[in-house]
Amino acid sequence: MKTCKLLPLYYECFQRKSIEVGPDLSLFNGFFSIISEPQTSSEQYSSEDDPSNLDEMPLMMSEEGFENDESDYQTLPRARVNQRQSGLGWFLLGGWKVLCGSCCDCLAHICRRKKELKARTVWLGCPEKCEEKYPKNAIKNQKYNIFTFVPGVLYQQFKFFLNLYFLVVACSQFVPSLKIGYLYTYWAPLGFVLAVTMVREAVDEVRRYQRDKEMNSQLYSKLTVRGKIQVKSSDIQVGDLIIVEKVNIYCFLSGACFIRTDQLDGETDWKLKVAVGCTQRLPALGDLFSISAYVYAQRPQLDIHSFEGNFTREDTDPQIHESLSIENTLWASTVVASGTVIGVVIYTGKETRSVLNTSFAKNKVGLLDLELNRLTKALFLAQVVLSVVMVALQGFVGPWFRNLFRFVVLFSYIIPISLRVNLDMGKSAYGWMIMKDENIPGTVVRTSTIPEELGRLVYLLTDKTGTLTQNEMIFKRLHLGTVSYGTDTMDEIQSHIIQSYAQVTSQPSNGSTNGATPSRKTQTSGPKVRKSVSSRIHEAVKAIALCHNVTPVYESHGGVNGETESAEADQDFSDDNRTYQASSPDEVALVRWTESVGLTLVNRDLTSLQLKTPSGQILSFYILQIFPFTSESKRMGIIVREESTGDITFYMKGADVAMASIVQYNDWLEEECGNMAREGLRTLVVAKKSLSEEQYQDFENRYNQAKLSIHDRGLKVAAVVESLEREMELLCLTGVEDQLQADVRPTLELLRNAGIKIWMLTGDKLETATCIAKSSHLVSRNQHIHVFKPVSNRGEAHLELNAFRRKHDCALVISGDSLEVCLRYYEHEFVELACQCPAVVCCRCSPTQKAQIVRLLQQHTANRTCAIGDGGNDVSMIQAADCGIGIEGKEGKQASLAADFSITQFKHIGRLLMVHGRNSYKRSAALGQFVMHRGMIISTMQAVFSSIFYFASVPLYQGFLMVGYATIYTMFPVFSLVLDQDVKPEMALLYPELYKDLTKGRSLSFKTFLIWVLISVYQGGILMYGALVLFESEFVHVVAISFTALILTELLMVALTIRTWHWLMVVAEFFSLGCYLASLAFLNEYFGIGRVSFGAFLDLSFITTWPFLWKVSAITLVSCLPLYIIKYLKRKFSPPSYSKLSS
């Protein structure tokens, strides 16, 4: 039941014996749930956000802002930079692109005409009753179909100026008066480039089609009047009843199940979902078809944290109405972890939340390609100017316009088509090198067109869960105030627990056979009596074992139904079969720890729980009240009654900031919390309070009254609970570690030293995100953290931004809701401030918000961004970034498949960027400029030749020589530049500061381009004039003379450019030289002046004479020696940073 790219997740589910939910469901019998999407941002803000309320509150974001007294504070001076221009200048400087794009978007919108999303009424098991036609529940990730493939690929190729230019030049050769040389010299390279591109796109398209077909053909169980049938995922309709189950699981919660939502929000913890009460009470599954009932659901929305709907049963008197909330929903792309679910399908296909939160992949173009595209435009301008000069020197005589176009074609080698071929082959070579690197095993290059982007990154946006952390909580520390226990002293706690319960069981006469607290008498005698360490440990462990929302689940390893039923009947509490499920991995870690020291949670339902002591006795407790954890209260509590003694105890645990004012006075809590936080541990303070029967009855009456109130219900309930939270006895402080991925800290430090700014975007809670930011050293120990207060309107955002502006060199932590408000009113100012922070943490981010942050950084900073994640909720962010990296992790392969680069561990990103990113960028920059130099030098020679022959538009070299010059004579040495490296990999990792230079783009800029232009003009002039001066008496041999000197010069220039020699480079140099000498001997008819038919052949005896050899050598020496001298002097007096290290 897939609705987006979920093949890898499905595979993970079956590995773990979990079943994945497909379309968005609404829970019924086994359970029943529904799904939806959020209000649009324009509907979420109240009238208090009106700008008129803020006329006297200018936001002081810059010095100009202090003196700005305009009433519209949304348009501060810096924010007005991007105001739309108009006029002829705007049109010529790129406005035409905007207009064309707008027209295309308009046509596309008219063609698609997206249907408006509406609320719906869905009848149980009756898809035919649906009033509207809903989208098919099928995945389609293909970019093209059979009709649009060829036009689409051609458009993607020819939207670049480079390819469009070659197409126009090649087409011009069909006009006889413009023909220069042979057609194959123009069409063969262009056809090769297009053929390679089409084959690559076709292979990718077939793979996408096969993946989609596999997902759409997966079978699911559908409940019908005739019983259970199997249907394909693509055949599921709105209104169908779908059965999803996890077999051999015993969960003691009636009418509820657990699901995992890691592919939506990145959280791998379990979430409890509750069935609709009306259908849960039906005696049999078939009765679902005997009742007349429907679900009214809100329209499909983006928000994965809210849902509103109603369930109505019509065939009863009176009708039964039940409200539906997010607790009654199963989302597409979630995993059912326990129980059997029967759900009605509410949303399918494009209307499910997972698809609504997934952005479509864009065709990514590297920054280096854009820079080369700009340089080719400059070359084209130079080519046109040179052609006009030639025609002007002719005096515009005769058909000058035709001559102008002939000159343009003649000088077309200024922009060589081999540039595209060489760069594409180079990118493939870089990808192969990355995948073959033994230091980063398992790395896959999925987008081979942007390896150079790895060397230009300024912002790295990373997920938390599964990317920086393993999401495996380990209990590390227990502090009792006077004594602290770590991992190496846990056996002492275990011995204390065994001893304390052994004392209790050896005293049956006190009536406490089921394990009352051994220090009960001392506890009631007064707070002044000092308890023993053993009794304090006992109370602390007991509190941790009781105060939670964890449920034990038993998994049978037997395959026969009879065995599983008998096991369930006997309540087999075997430790081997038990797993724990909870909405927080912290709580599971605490309960696992109590199990390790002897007190085990063996059973729990909605009203009771049972613990097993080290001696095997079962302690039963009734759950009287539960106060769940919220981000506002930062604590959770539970009131239990012990079955054997009837004692009522109120246990509470929470963050130190929330608990400090609740517990009795102490002098150690704050200090120890700080110590644990510095170690990267997540701290929880545990406290308790004993209640008498009268106290509890009084509380229960007030609590129930508060829950029934209509006005301010939340405030009244909180006030009643707070009346209990006074002078609680502090039991202990716990420290839990969220294990980081291997080498996360040194990797983050490496990236920071390389000048990369790291932003952490997570769907997790604020406290958790802050803790991981500290423990991973994303935020350094001495760095201040500014937690952005929750804001809901413009005024609050305004005040909080001003407070944030006054902070310097501090990390920012902000929630998704506050971020949305800030971006609505103060987008430019917020991004400007956030970009100045050394680190930014955004918590409670939805998948679409993650992608929005990426796009904001791209728009406001114009820097290259990289996004890295491992879950389905990271796909939008990965696809929006200039470079997307996916990690194959516990959350499946969805992010890995959607990314441009796939790695197996976070630490591999260091080598990927520092080594491969550097090499790819440096090599492509050198390769691109050298290929352009190769074209410019021969065009300069052509210009000199034409100027001597009265500015005639006659080619200097025959078509075969021109093709050979760009291929067999120089291709291998030039392409061997992809093996060059300026710094050894070890040095690049040891000195990450070298990476900062790459982001400035100095390896390929207009400055370096102009240097190569001057070199080309100098060498082309020397070669042509030298050939004419030294060989005046043998002028018929000018082609052989100049071409030989040209080939030798190119081979020497490659040697001059290389920084680190590879044996293949030497082979390429000598192979090309050998090929050229062989062609001189066997293809001498191509070296004459003019056409072969003129009878101008090369005299073999001439090229073997000493005058020919020394004169060619002299010309080559004059063209290259000055450049070698300049390079030597520059290295000696102004060496680059990397040469200082390598020396």
TrEMBL record:
Q: How does it sit in the membrane?
A: Multi-pass membrane protein
Which residues belong to any copy of the P-type ATPase C-terminal domain? Answer: 897-1135
Q: Where are the transmembrane segments?
A: 184-203, 378-398, 404-423, 931-951, 957-979, 1009-1029, 1035-1056, 1063-1083, 1103-1126
The cross-references to Gene3D superfamilies, in alphabetical order and at most eight, read: Calcium-transporting ATPase, cytoplasmic domain N, Calcium-transporting ATPase, cytoplasmic transduction domain A, HAD superfamily/HAD-like
EC assignment: the record states 7.6.2.1
Name a single GO cellular component: trans-Golgi network
Write out the catalytic residues in the record: D463
| Binding-site list for ATP | D463, K464, T465, E587, F629, K653, R682, T762, G763, D764, R844, K850, N873, D874
> Which PROSITE patterns does the UniProt entry name for this protein?
ATPASE_E1_E2 (PS00154)
The entry marks the following residues as binding Mg(2+), namely D463, T465, D870, D874
Known PANTHER family for this protein? PHOSPHOLIPID-TRANSPORTING ATPASE IIB-RELATED, PROBABLE PHOSPHOLIPID-TRANSPORTING ATPASE
Q: What's the family?
A: Belongs to the cation transport ATPase (P-type) (TC 3.A.3) family. Type IV subfamily.
UniProt name for this protein: Phospholipid-transporting ATPase
